[in-house]
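hey so i finally got around to running the thing on that chain from the lab meeting. sorry it took forever, my laptop kept dying and i had to restart like 3 times. anyway pasting the input first so we r on the same page abt which one it is
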Amino acid sequence: MFASLLTCGACTDLSDTVYSEITEESFSKNPSSINLLIGKVYTSIGTYIAATNPNFSPFYYNVCTTDEMFIPFRNVTKEWNNAKFSDAYQHSWTPTTQDLDKNWEKCFGIITSANMAIDQVNSFDGMEQHLKDVTIAEIRMARAYAYYLLIDLWGDVPYTVSSSDKTSDIKKKTSAEIYNLMMKEFDDCLPLLKEAKKDKSTTYGKFNYWAALALKAKYLLNAKIFLETDRVNPKYADEKTGLDECIDICDELMSPEAGFELEKDYFTNFKAHNENSKENIFVIPFDAVYSKDNFTLGFGYARHCLHASQTPVYNGTVNGQNGFSVYPSLYKTFEDFDVRKNGLNAGPQFDASGKPLKCIKAQMKNPDGTFMDLDFKVDFDINNCDEMSGARFQKYEYENGIITDAMNNDFVVVRLADIMMMKAECLMRLADGQATQEAVDLVNEVRNRSISDPSQYDFYNTSNLTMDALLEERRREFYGEALRRTDLIRFEKFTDMDWVDDIHMDRSKIRTEKYRTVFPLPANYLKTAPQIEQHPYYQ
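ok and heres what got predicted. didnt touch it at all, straight out
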């Protein structure tokens, strides 16, 4: 982790007191305080991942509502027995679901921090105008990222761009209105950020030109969803809106000038020290030292993915809570020659000396009273679920000496492989779902780098690269990167819920209404803002 990053806010807790004490006089004498000024914005963005509990982060709802992984109620061993976890994988959330409050607060925390920072920069009369304009452009792009999360998760939401707005005065806008407002934001800010382009190493983890450009591409790719006004019976009339421009942006991000490259090793992008990845375009930086023992700052997913018996394997203090399990269909979608499968852990578990690890629950004993060997089972029944049920997520490297609530890995938000696959998707959508040769070449290039058997290269052609095949290839490439829910919605598969049949879930418990592509506005928020109406389909 670069030392300069630690002051940008992604890893440092900047209190409101310190933040508010930045004055025009002190700023003028110390221009480096730009990092301090906007640090709270990036700290707020870090909460997308950092959380006291896994379900208190937007990451959770973008992963555990899909066919990738979830936190099951392990009824045999009495683990994770809480309806708030089943709400996610059964799509049965309501306006009073507590976890949605936490996620709402985190997304609007970014908005609040950005608005405060913009208003404060605007108040500095002595600040050089160009520096002021570029600084504000960066903050506006961070705010645009928050609105991307908000309209993706909730659809129509309250809209504010000033810290002086009172809660009672803020009005709700449709996702289509916010989408169009964000297009204007990009028009205003991208030229400023392009002119101010710097060495990427000095703007790592920030909304530089390339990160902002990738964010716009994300908006454009999902325009058909954001511009839809009927959530109950969506028509998606704007199927091809924005796709030509998205292709142009992807081309720019793939250009030599941008300087991004596919890493030869897929897992380089997810190493404990992945700041040197040539593929990652925008990340949320984390640091184990600065976020040690701080749930609200740390990337602590090792704690939620590992079993307690695995702690000695890494010579650390991580207290594995045996949370996330992988859907069998995700594990089985990989061929053995696909190295991406190594990001999932299944089968018997051993310590560093090769000795079998053991279960720890009283229900998991052999007839002689000894604990069973720990063996993660790919196939399992949600109605008979225990501490060994399900393969486990290990895509992000768990380094030796890992501590309880903090990892050094920077969380990847967007990388070049995604941009390449996005372009392929745009080309196919413009061709009414048919694969062009260019789309085939892009998908094969991404896939080939993870295939250990050269005879299996170039699997796709214009006949077998269907839209369904592309969606499944995206699952293989991007599992655990919090893209799947948005992908399933864009491909109109999210409410099908076919994947629950893998684990023998009772279909009567599943909610499949089309409007569940967005979440209800939290009931607690609506109590503080009576002028904001709940989505009609959740009333």
